[in-house]
Each structure stands twice: as structure tokens, then as C-alpha cells.
Write a structure and sequence with these properties.
The chain is α/β, with parallel strands linked by helices. The protein has a domain of 184 residues: Rossmann fold. The protein contains nine helices and twelve strands. Strands 8-9-10-5-11-12 form a six-stranded mixed beta sheet. It is globular and about 50 Å long.
């Protein structure tokens, strides 16, 4: 957030890059102490034997209907923990509470009751400014509709979050270039979103989600705007990210997406009705299967 005349003024870049405060961010030296986002981890444990990355305990969210005193419980005493390297699908009908849960897990909202621990820190009662800093440092987001800045190139879109994290220009460019390479976009660095296909835009989103080396990546219907073939290519990228130790949560209505995950949690009326584990499946290398990668004509 930039300051002007003593007040807070959000730039266009900040509005389209939620959770990236300018005044209270970690310097690049702090980020360098985390594991590298540009290469696979040297040793990846199975989720069952990994440490807990995030956990919600007796978590509830209650809203009041506008203009009334009527309370609606969106979440009811939810208890879940997420292990490092775990790939989890969250499913449920409209109104089940899955979007509310993802908003809380993404530090975009706070619970009414209960606690949310992320990376060993209870973030359920911190200030909005602190929540924004946590969001910028520890969470990566992948959106159904991409949320790319249309005026910027692929490389520039990847550099925006790093600008707010205070990373020097040369290092930003190096990191953005490497992340673009990992998702198969080396030949598209100077293209703007309107010059990219839907699958290519989602690849940019995947790379952008990794720039802050997040503890957890949240994906909201990531294949919802894509055709089935392109969707499978994006899911193959997710498989490889998880294989390198990334922790991913995906909100989806698609049973095919859920079948690729380690774990499937189903919600109904704000409560967990099932929490099941899938058999593991092999995953391709990051960037493989890029047949869709042609720019729009």
C-alpha cells in the first residue's frame, strides 16, 4: 500500500494482488531462509509422516443476514489439519461452507469462534494488517478466472508480488524467468494475458502462486474455466508441485479433480460429512504435456 498525503492509497497492482502490503513485508534476505521455490525439495516425506502446516480447531463462522439480527452459521465447529506435502480437495454443494473455509484458510477472513494455526502461528485473532502480511508471506493463490493484470506481460505479472515483498529488480527478473520456465512459458515471457490461451494464463497463475515460497497453495476451481484437455494438463502441473513437497488445497465440484488428490473432504451445511483418503497415483514432470500451449490467434 502506497502512502499519499498521510492516507492509504491502493495502487492498481495491489488491488489485483491481494495480501501484498508494501509497508510491512519481509525483505528478500528473510525469504532466502525458506526452502527454494525454484527447485524440488531434496527429501519429501509422505503426508502421513509430515509435519502439520495448517490446522483449524472448533472453527465456526457466523454471519448476520443484512438488515436483520438473523444469524446464519456458514461453518460449525470444524476440525481439520493439513500435513506438509498433502494434496486435499474440498467439495460440497453451493452453500456448504467450502468457500467460507477457503477464505479463512487464505487469511481473507477470520473465524467467529475457534482457532486457525498456520505454520505454527495462531492467526485467528491477529490484526488485519498482520493478516495481510501473513497472507503475502505464507500463502499462494490460484484463481479460476486467473486475476492477471491485463496491461502487464507474463514476466511482469510474476514480478508484481516480488515487488511488494521488497525483492531487488534483478533478483525479481531472475526468479520470474525461472518460474515461467518451470511451467513451460519460456517462449511467452513478453506476452500479455490477452495473447495467451486459458491454459497458458493458468500456468502464469501457478508460477505466481510460488513466488513467495508459500507454506500452502489454495486453488479455487482451477480448471473451471478450461476445456477438459487443458484442465488435465494443469492438474498434471499440480501433481508435480505436490511431488516436490508443496501443500495444496483445491476447491472443486469435479470428481475427476478430487480423484487425483491424496484426500477429499466433503462439507454439507457447514459441517464435515466425510474425510477420506485416495490411493496415491504417479505424477508427470513439471511442464510435461504442454500440447495446449499455443497463443490465441
Amino acid at each position: 500500500m502506497l502512502r499519499k498525503g498521510g492516507g492509504a492509497v491502493k495502487t492498481e497492482l495491489e488491488v489485483q494482488s491481494p495480501g501484498l502490503p508494501y509497508d510491512s513485508v519481509p525483505r528478500h534476505s528473510e525469504l532466502s531462509n525458506q526452502r527454494s521455490a525454484l527447485s524440488p525439495q531434496s527429501s519429501v516425506l509422505s503426508p502421513q509422516h509430515s509435519s502439520t502446516v495448517a490446522a483449524v480447531t472448533n472453527l465456526s463462522k457466523i454471519y448476520c443476514k443484512p438488515g436483520t439480527t438473523v444469524e446464519v452459521a456458514a461453518l460449525r465447529s470444524i476440525n481439520i489439519d493439513f500435513k506438509e506435502g498433502e494434496y486435499t480437495a474440498i467439495m460440497g454443494a453451493s452453500g456448504s461452507g467450502k468457500s467460507t473455509l477457503m477464505n479463512i484458510l487464505g487469511c481473507l477472513d477470520k473465524p467467529t469462534h475457534g482457532s486457525y494455526t498456520l505454520g505454527g502461528q495462531d492467526v485467528s485473532a491477529v490484526t488485519d494488517d498482520d493478516l495481510s502480511e501473513i497472507r503475502s508471506r505464507k500463502i499462494g493463490f490460484i484463481f479460476q478466472n486467473f486475476n492477471l493484470i491485463q496491461q502487464l506481460t507474463v514476466l511482469e505479472n510474476l514480478e508484481v508480488p516480488m515487488f511488494y515483498l521488497g525483492i531487488p529488480p534483478a533478483k525479481r527478473r531472475e526468479r520470474a524467468t525461472e518460474l515461467a520456465r518451470r511451467v513451460g512459458l519460456t517462449e511467452r515471457l513478453d506476452h500479455r494475458p490477452t495473447q495467451l490461451s486459458g491454459g497458458q494464463q493458468q500456468r502464469v497463475c501457478i508460477a505466481r502462486a510460488m513466488v513467495n515460497d508459500p507454506l500452502i497453495i489454495l486453488a479455487d476451481e482451477p480448471t473451471g474455466a478450461l476445456d477438459s484437455k487443458t484442465g488435465q494438463q494443469i492438474l498434471a502441473l499440480f501433481d508435480e508441485l505436490v511431488a516436490t513437497g508443496r501443500t495444496m488445497l483445491v476447491v472443486t465440484h469435479d470428481p475427476g479433480v478430487a480423484a487425483r488428490c491424496h484426500r477429499v473432504i466433503r462439507l454439507h451445511d457447514g459441517e464435515i460429512v466425510s474425510d477420506e483418503r485416495n490411493a496415491p497415483t504417479p505424477s508427470p514432470s513439471l511442464g510435461e504435456g504442454r500440447g495446449e500451449g499455443e497463443a490465441r490467434k
